Amino acid sequence: MSVRQQVLVLYLGTSALDSPVAGWSVYDGTGRTSPTTGDGDVPPYASGVEALRDGWRLFQAAQLIPPYPGGEYDVSFLKHEFFFEKLVEEAGVSVVRV
Fold first, then answer.
1. Rounded to the nearest 5°, which phi and psi values hold at 48?
2. Is this structure's pTM higher than 0.90?
């Protein structure tokens, strides 16, 4: 057996893991699926907590950076970004170690 990583990126409405998902991306290191950004209208999970309950492991959360004075309403990147992973066993894949 070999292990491959799946990555889930959730952009939440606030810095709280139980806030609603505003955007998402999924990457599958197993090669079983090839999801792309914008390929669905419904997020895979309603919140970060829901992803945790389904077995995803949180490994990075966005830094909380206060807005610059006067910039509270500027449009920019989605700042509440959370990275999750699952390690999936893959049968029949051999890994060469050097």
1. -65, -35
2. no
